[in-house]
From TrEMBL:
Keywords: Oxidoreductase. This is Digeranylgeranylglycerophospholipid reductase. Residues 5-310 form the FAD-binding domain. Pfam families: FAD_binding_3. It comes from the Archaea. It comes from Natrinema soli. Its EC number is 1.3.7.11. One of its GO terms (molecular function) is oxidoreductase activity. InterPro entries: Dggglyphlred_Halo, FAD-bd, FAD/NAD-bd_sf, Geranylgeranyl_reductase.
C-alpha cells in the first residue's frame, strides 16, 4: 500500500465518501480510512433516519435503488393538531446508500482501507502531514480531512471542534410493520415524512414516522440534553422509555411489530462551529457539526460539506507551488456558510426557542401554519427573521422572556411582531 496521498480522509460516511467521490473524479490520489470492517460496513454506523429530498438525490446522482420509499408530503404534528405541506422527498435504505457511495468512489479511483481506526494526527512544524491508525500505522497526505463524526479524533486534537455536552442530541429509531398509516383522527401518513413536536414523547426534541411502504415505517425520536429537556423530561425515563410510551399510547401502533435487525441509535451535536479548518486540514460532516439544527436533516448537509471540502482541496492542489495553508483553505469556510449552513446562527436560535415552547404552543403553531401561506414556513425554516416574526404572538411574551435569559445577546426587538 502507498503511504502518501494527495488527500487522506478519516471516515467513510456520507461526508467522507462524497468528498472522496469528488476528489477521485478530479484525478487526485485519495485514501479513506474507515473504522468498521468491510464485511460488516455499515452495521455500527447505520444510524440515520435517511430522510432526504429530491434536491440531494439530483445534485449527487443518487440512484433509485437505494430508496425505500419516495414521499409526497411533510407532516408536522403537535399533541392535537397537524399541518401538511406538499413536498416531495425520499426515505433511503441508509446502509445501501452508504455502500453505494463507497463503491462509486472506488470506481472513480478512491482507495479505501477498512478496519482502520484513526487515532491521531502526525504533525511537523505545527502542521498536520498525516495520521496514525490502528496504533502504529501511518499514512501521509498534502491535505487531511476529518469525517469521523462526533468522535473527531483529529479535529479535537487540532483544536478545531469543541463539542459540548449540553448540545448533544441522542436518538433511537426502529422500523415497524403493522402501522395504521391512515388512522382516523390523524393526518394521512401515506407517502409522507412526519415530524411531531410533543414533550410527552420527546422532551426538548421531536419524534417521527417516515412511511416506507404498505404498513411499514421508520419510527423514532431524539432530543437535545439541554435546559429544555431538563424542564420537560421525567427523571425516571430513558430515551427507550419515551419510545415505549409513544408506542403504547398512540393507536397507530396498536398492531405494530418491530422488524428484526432494524434498530438504530445515533447521536450528534447541535451547535454552530467555531472553526472549520486549519493548515492542511478540514473538518466535514457531523465532525463540524453540519446537522440541520431545526429538523435534524443531516444527509444533504454532510454531502454538501464533503463537496465543499473537495472543491477547496482542488482549488489548492491543482496549482503547483501553492501550499494548503489555512489562508489558502479559507474558501471552505465561505462555501460552508453559503451552501451547507446559511443563516446558521438564526436557525440555531429558532431551534432553541422552538424546543422551549410548551405543548399547547405547538398546537397553536400548527393552527398558525394552516392559516399562513407556505412561503412563510419556508422562509422561517431558512432562518428569515421577518418570517419568524409572523409566527410569534403577543401571548409568547413569557416564552420569549425565558428564552432571553438563556440567550442574553438575543435582540428581542428583531423577533417581536
Amino acid at each position: 500500500m502507498n503511504d502518501r496521498y494527495d488527500v487522506v480522509i478519516a471516515g467513510a460516511g456520507p461526508a467522507g465518501a462524497q468528498c472522496a467521490r469528488d476528489l477521485a473524479a478530479r484525478g487526485y490520489d485519495v485514501v479513506v480510512l474507515e473504522t468498521e470492517a468491510e464485511e460488516e460496513f455499515p452495521r455500527q454506523s447505520n444510524k440515520s433516519t435517511a430522510g432526504t429530498f429530491h434536491s440531494m438525490m439530483a445534485a449527487f446522482g443518487i440512484p433509485d435503488d437505494v430508496v425505500m420509499q419516495y414521499t409526497d408530503s411533510v407532516v408536522l404534528e403537535s399533541p392535537t393538531e397537524h399541518y401538511v405541506r406538499d413536498q416531495t422527498g425520499a426515505v433511503l435504505e441508509f446502509a445501501d446508500f452508504k455502500r453505494y457511495l463507497v463503491k462509486d468512489s472506488r470506481d472513480r479511483g478512491a482507495e479505501y482501507r477498512f478496519d482502520a481506526r484513526v487515532t491521531a494526527p502526525i504533525t511537523e512544524n505545527g502542521e498536520i502531514v498525516g495520521v496514525t491508525y490502528n496504533g502504529d500505522e501511518e499514512v501521509y497526505g498534502d491535505i487531511t480531512i476529518d469525517a469521523t463524526g462526533p468522535s473527531a479524533p483529529l479535529a479535537k486534537k487540532l483544536d478545531i471542534v469543541d463539542l459540548e455536552r449540553e448540545n448533544h442530541a441522542i436518538g433511537v429509531e426502529y422500523e415497524f410493520e403493522g402501522i395504521d398509516i391512515d388512522r382516523p383522527g390523524f393526518a394521512d401518513l401515506r407517502d409522507a415524512m412526519m415530524l411531531r413536536l410533543d414533550h410527552e414523547i420527546a422532551p426538548g426534541g421531536y419524534s417521527w414516522i417516515f412511511h416506507t411502504g404498505a404498513d411499514t415505517a421508520k419510527v423514532g425520536l431524539c432530543y437535545i440534553q439541554n435546559d429544555s429537556h431538563d424542564q420537560y423530561s421525567r427523571d425516571d425515563f430513558t430515551i427507550d422509555d419515551y419510545l415505549s410510551h409513544w408506542l403504547e399510547t398512540d393507536p397507530r401502533f396498536r398492531d405494530a411489530e418491530p422488524i428484526e435487525g432494524k434498530q438504530h441509535r445515533g447521536s450528534a451535536h447541535i451547535q454552530a462551529p467555531d472553526k472549520l479548518h486549519t493548515d492542511r486540514f478540514m473538518a466535514i460532516g457531523d465532525t463540524v457539526p453540519s446537522l440541520d439544527p431545526l429538523w435534524g436533516e443531516g444527509i444533504n448537509k454532510c454531502m454538501q460539506s464533503g463537496r465543499a471540502a473537495a472543491a477547496t482541496a482542488d482549488s489548492v492542489l491543482k496549482h503547483d507551488g501553492i501550499e494548503p495553508t489555512a489562508e489558502n483553505l479559507e474558501v471552505y469556510d465561505t462555501l460552508w456558510h453559503r451552501d451547507v449552513a446559511p443563516n446558521a446562527k438564526s436557525r440555531l436560535l429558532m431551534t432553541q426557542l422552538l424546543y422551549l415552547a410548551p405543548n399547547d404552543r405547538y398546537d397553536r403553531l400548527m393552527r398558525d401554519l394552516q392559516r399562513l401561506d407556505d412561503d412563510t414556513l419556508a422562509e422561517a425554516n431558512k432562518g428569515n427573521v421577518r418570517a419568524i416574526a409572523n409566527l410569534i404572538e403577543l401571548e409568547d411574551a413569557p416564552l420569549l422572556a425565558r428564552f432571553a435569559k438563556q440567550q442574553l445577546d438575543l435582540d428581542l426587538g428583531s423577533l417581536l411582531p
